[in-house]
Specification:
The complex is a heterodimer of chains A (about 170) and B (about 240). Chain A has about 170 residues and is of the alpha+beta class. In chain A, about 30% of the residues lie in helices and about 45% in strands. At the A-B interface, helix 1, strand 1, helix 2, strand 2 and strand 5 of A face helix 6, strand 1, strand 2, strand 3 and helix 7 of B. Strand 6 of chain A pairs parallel with strand 1 of chain B, so a sheet runs across the interface.
Chain lengths: ~170, ~240
C-alpha cells in the first residue's frame, strides 16, 4: 500500500514537471516574444528627440561680443577658435521624430538642415543627418551617430576668412 | 618602557586577568594587597562585582538534568529518521532552553512524530522546487534564444536603412560636386569637430586628455543654447 502510494506520488511529480517544463519553454518562445516585439516597434517609431542646432560666425581678430551668447558659450567657443569674435546667427530647438528635420538659417545664403534619422540605434545613440546648403545647393552632407545630451560641431571656412560654426545636439 | 604598573607582588594585568577568569591557585592575599594599593584595579574590581551581581539576578534558569536527557534522547532518535521532521519535533525544546520562545505546546518527553502522509508531501515539495528551477532555466534559455535572434535582426534593418540613404546622398553629391563625409560615430564624452575644408571633411577629436570629474562645460553650453532657443517664462501674470 505504501509502495503504491509512493509510486503514485512520483507519477504526479513527473507529470507536473513535464507540464511546467514545456509550458515554460512555450511561454519563453512565444508569449513573451510577442510583447517584446511590440515594445520595440513602439520605441523605434514614436520616440521624439529634442534636436538643437545653432550657427555662429567666428571672425578672426574681432572683438565682437554678441550679447546673446552667455559667458560659458563664449569661453568654450574660444577653445575651439581662439582669438576670434563670435556672433550668433540662428538657433533652433524642436522635438522631432524620425524623418522630421530642423532648419537653421545661417544668413548669406547658408542653411543647415538637421534631420533625425533614428532616435536611438542599437548602441543607444541618436542618428542625425546634417546637410549644409548654400543658395539651395547642397554643399556638405554627413550622418552622425552621437550619444544624447552631447554637442558636436561642424566648421566651414567662408571666403571672407571667417569661419562658420554649427553646433548640433539631441536629447 | 614600563608597560604595567607594579604595586605589590602582583601586576595590574595579572590582577585583571584573575578577576575576569578566577583560577584555583590564586593568591588572595596578594590580590587584596594589590587592590588596596591600586585605585585603577580597585575600580575595575568594583565594576566586575557589579556585573556579576547583574548577571546573577538576570540570568535564565539552568535547564535541569532531565531536560538535557530529553534533548539527547531526541538527538539520538533523530539520527535514523528524516532530519526535517525530527528537527521540527526537537526545535521547540531547544528554543525553550534558550528562553527565546514560550513554553512548548506538546508535553516534554513526548516527541512529535510526523504523520505518514507528511513524507510524500515533503518529496512533492522538493520535486516542485526542482521543477520550478528547471522551468526557470528553460524560460531563460528560451528568452535568451529569442533575444539573440531578435538582436541579429536589428543590425540588418539598420544597415539596410543606411545603405538606402547613402546612394541618395552620394548621387546628389556627384551632381553638385559637394564634399561628403562618411558616417561619423561619436563616443560618449567625446568632443568632435567636423571640419569641412576645400575638398575633404576631416573629423577632429577635441576631447581633453585629462579626465575631468566636474560637469562637462560643453553640456552647459548645450543647456545655454537650448535656453536661448526656448526661453522659459519664469513668471506670468
Amino acid at each position: 500500500m505504501a509502495i503504491a502510494r509512493r509510486r503514485l506520488g512520483w507519477l504526479v511529480i513527473e507529470l507536473a514537471m513535464a507540464a511546467l517544463t514545456f509550458g515554460g519553454l512555450a511561454l519563453g518562445l512565444c508569449g513573451l516574444h510577442v510583447s517584446r516585439a511590440s515594445m520595440d516597434v513602439k520605441s523605434a517609431d514614436d520616440e521624439a528627440r529634442q534636436v538643437t542646432v545653432f550657427g555662429v560666425i567666428a571672425t578672426p581678430g574681432s572683438k565682437t561680443a554678441d550679447t546673446n551668447l552667455t559667458t560659458i558659450i563664449k569661453t568654450q567657443l574660444d577653445k575651439l577658435l581662439p582669438r576670434h569674435g563670435f556672433k550668433l546667427l540662428d538657433v533652433q530647438s524642436k522635438p522631432i521624430v524620425a524623418g522630421e528635420s530642423v532648419t537653421c538659417d545661417l544668413r548669406n545664403g547658408y542653411t543647415v538642415v538637421t534631420a533625425l534619422v533614428q532616435p536611438v540605434d542599437e548602441n543607444g545613440k541618436v542618428q542625425i543627418r546634417c546637410e549644409l546648403y548654400r543658395d539651395q545647393v547642397l554643399q556638405f552632407s554627413t550622418v552622425v551617430k552621437t550619444p544624447p545630451n552631447q554637442l558636436f560641431f561642424c566648421q566651414r571656412a567662408l571666403q571672407s576668412g571667417s569661419q562658420l560654426l554649427i553646433g548640433i545636439g539631441a536629447r | 618602557m614600563k608597560k604595567f604598573k607594579r604595586w605589590s607582588t602582583m601586576q595590574c594585568n595579572e590582577v585583571i586577568r584573575e578577576l575576569a577568569v578566577p583560577t584555583d591557585d590564586r593568591d588572595s592575599a596578594a590580590l587584596a594587597e594589590h587592590l588596596a594599593s591600586c585605585p585603577s584595579c580597585a575600580r575595575w574590581a568594583k565594576r566586575d562585582a557589579q556585573f556579576d551581581r547583574l548577571w546573577i539576578t538576570t540570568r535564565p534558569v539552568e535547564p535541569s538534568p532531565q531536560v538535557w536527557d530529553g534533548v539527547w534522547v531526541h538527538v539520538a532518535s533523530s539520527l535514523d529518521s528524516s532530519p526535517p521532521a525530527k528537527f521540527e519535533a526537537l526545535a521547540p525544546h531547544v528554543a525553550t532552553l534558550n528562553g527565546s520562545i514560550p513554553r512548548v505546546e506538546t508535553p516534554f518527553g513526548l516527541p512529535r512524530v510526523s504523520s505518514p502522509r507528511s513524507r510524500p508531501w515533503n518529496w512533492a515539495a522538493v520535486g516542485l522546487i526542482g521543477l520550478a528551477q528547471a522551468a526557470a532555466v528553460l524560460l531563460a534559455v528560451g528568452l535568451t534564444w529569442r533575444t539573440s535572434t531578435k538582436s541579429q535582426e536589428i543590425p540588418i534593418a539598420i544597415s539596410t536603412h543606411s545603405v538606402a540613404m547613402s546612394p541618395e546622398v552620394s548621387a546628389v553629391a556627384k551632381e553638385s560636386g559637394l564634399r561628403s563625409a562618411p558616417v561619423v560615430e561619436i563616443e560618449a564624452g567625446q568632443m568632435v569637430l567636423i571640419r569641412v575644408e576645400d575638398s575633404v571633411a576631416k573629423v577632429v577629436d577635441l576631447t581633453p586628455d585629462r579626465i575631468s570629474y566636474s560637469v562637462d562645460d560643453w553640456y552647459l553650453v548645450f543647456n545655454a543654447v537650448e535656453a536661448i532657443a526656448n526661453p522659459v517664462i519664469a513668471m506670468k501674470e
